[in-house]
Amino acid sequence: MSTEVAELDELWAAIGDPTRRRVVEVLLGRGEATATAMAGELPVTRQAVAKHLAVLDRAGLVQARRQGREVRYAIQPQRLVAATRSMAQVAAEWDARLSAIKRIAEAVAREQAQERRREERST
């Protein structure tokens, strides 16, 4: 597996979890925050937030910065842009697939309607 594919898989796995997406939303709203501060806005413990932040950090979506005794986290915008592009590309691919399925289904429906009309005329 290529490095790029592995990075995309890690990115999708990180952002695929609803709690991690909520952590990202909180960080986008705050700019930066500690795990303790984020836990106050989320329905999970500080320890759970810290674990989610570790996954987001490994995927490159957040960066930790020590300030005194606190560890503050912030979104890595360039990685978030990459995630957005990746999701947009997958969405476009699915749109194309769904359009193809729709065309096939409409063609089958037309053929069935024509067959019914032929049968009605022959009776």
What brief labels describe this structure?
123 residues; alpha+beta; Arc Repressor Mutant, subunit A; 5 helices
Question: Can you offer a commentary on this structure?
Answer:
This protein is of the alpha+beta class and 123 residues long. The chain has five helices and three strands. The chain has helices at 3-15, 18-30, 35-39, 46-58, 77-122, and strands at residues 32-34, 62-67, 70-75. Strands 1-3-2 form a three-stranded antiparallel β-sheet. Helix 1 (3-15) runs antiparallel to helix 4 (46-58). The model has no long low-confidence stretch (mean pLDDT 92).
CATH level 1 class label of the domain at 3-76: Mainly Alpha
Instruction: Compute the CA-based radius of gyration.
Output: 24 Å
Report how far apart the termini are. Answer: 61 Å
Count of extended strands: 3
Percent helix range: over 70%
Structural class: alpha+beta
Low-confidence stretches: none
CATH architecture of the domain at 3-76: Orthogonal Bundle
Question: In order across it, which strands form the biggest sheet?
Answer: 1-3-2
Anisotropy-based shape: elongated
DSSP strand (E) fraction? 5-15%
Mean pLDDT: 92
**What is the number of helical segments per DSSP (H or I, 4+ residues)?**
5
Largest sheet: 3 strands, antiparallel
The CATH topology of the domain at 3-76 is: Arc Repressor Mutant, subunit A
At the fourth level of CATH, the homologous superfamily of the domain at 3-76 is Winged helix-like DNA-binding domain superfamily/Winged helix DNA-binding domain
